[in-house]
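User: I've been trying to design a sequence by hand for this structure and keep getting stuck. Would you show me what you'd pick, starting by listing the structure so we're on the same page?

Assistant: Good idea, let's start from the same input. This is the structure you sent:
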């Protein structure tokens, strides 16, 4: 069975493989297509696409944007981004600058807790331009403050952690509109990750659809079979396509493997073809 993975992260944000390594790994795993969807940056896409041409696998240019809601962060994926994203670039730069300010304040909180850590060490840890909590976690692990990334988030960096600070993010409508205006396929990422009820999801979906949402990420490492069914049903009711991916982060999420997630994920090639068909009908390039 031909499979794809349309949600992955690289060193351009908080993954641990280079874009080229990720694409070659996807090819070795036998995937027919892979989308590179780093947080708040498109800087890994040229390298990924070049690697795809070289080893013979479709590479979809993408990114993942965080948005704020009364139920916490919801994530939006843009797939099939064009090479020229100047319409989006200013916004991405703004989001990364805000991340930078937040990272400094998180490090200060850690310092006040008596931990020996500096912002320079965090920036050193990052290989790309989008720096976040996983990079801070990596320093904490390297210095022996915590044993692994799970502990780093539980004790310090996660919502209930001692050094937690919220991140400045976009409004959902704005994120969808920005990506839609670029001609991207816009998908609501991992809708079932937070515990919302059906009414909340319907309200939220209405806001997204009104601004150009085209798909729902039904298949995801953290989605159960029941979650997939809820997503498939939402997609049917709103006339949306399905998308799916592992949300691979390399060794930052060591149990999630490319293409197969925790082992049971399968994103059929037909999902990829249906997204392409939807784009063709809209006169958008693939
Ligand atoms: P940030 O973008 O700085 O807010 O960090 C969020 C990122 O941290 C997410 O995209 C995940 O990749 C990662 N993350 C969040 N919680 C955990 C966790 N418990 N363990 C490992 N990684 C996590
Ligand atoms: Zn991430
Ligand atoms: Fe996400
Ligand atoms: Fe992601």
């Amino acid at each position: 069975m031909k499979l794809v993975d349309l949600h992955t992260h690289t060193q351009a944000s908080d993954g641990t493989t280079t874009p080229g390594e990720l694409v070659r790994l996807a090819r070795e795993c036998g995937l027919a297509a892979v989308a590179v969807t780093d947080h708040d940056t498109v800087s890994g896409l040229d390298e990924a696409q070049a690697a795809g041409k070289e080893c013979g696998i479709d590479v979809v240019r993408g990114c993942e944007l965080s948005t704020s809601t009364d139920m916490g962060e919801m994530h939006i994926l843009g797939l099939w981004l064009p090479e020229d994203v100047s319409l989006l670039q200013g916004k991405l730069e703004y989001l990364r600058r805000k991340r930078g300010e937040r990272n400094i304040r998180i490090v200060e909180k850690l310092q006040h807790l008596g931990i020996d850590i500096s912002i320079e060490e965090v920036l050193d840890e990052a290989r790309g331009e989008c720096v976040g909590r996983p990079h801070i976690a990596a320093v904490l692990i390297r210095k022996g403050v915590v044993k692994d990334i799970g502990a780093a988030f539980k004790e310090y960096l996660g919502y209930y952690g001692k050094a937690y600070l919220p991140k400045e993010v976009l409004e959902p409508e704005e994120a969808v509109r920005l990506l839609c205006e670029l001609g991207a396929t816009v998908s609501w990422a991992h809708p079932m990750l937070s515990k919302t009820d059906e009414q909340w999801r319907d309200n939220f979906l209405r806001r997204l659809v009104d601004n150009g949402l085209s798909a729902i990420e039904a298949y995801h490492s953290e989605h159960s079979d029941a979650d997939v069914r809820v997503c498939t049903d939402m997609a049917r009711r709103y006339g949306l396509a399905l998308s799916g991916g592992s949300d691979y982060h390399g060794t930052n999420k060591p149990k999630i493997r490319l293409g197969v997630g925790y082992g049971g994920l399968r994103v059929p090639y037909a999902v990829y073809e249906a997204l392409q068909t939807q784009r063709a009908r809209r006169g958008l390039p693939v």
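That's my pick for every position. To get oriented when you compare it with your attempt: The pocket of adenosine monophosphate (ligand 1) is lined by residues 14, 39, 132-134, 149-150, 153, 158, 167, 249, 252-253 (CB under 6 Å). Residues 239 and 260 are 27 Å apart (CA to CA).
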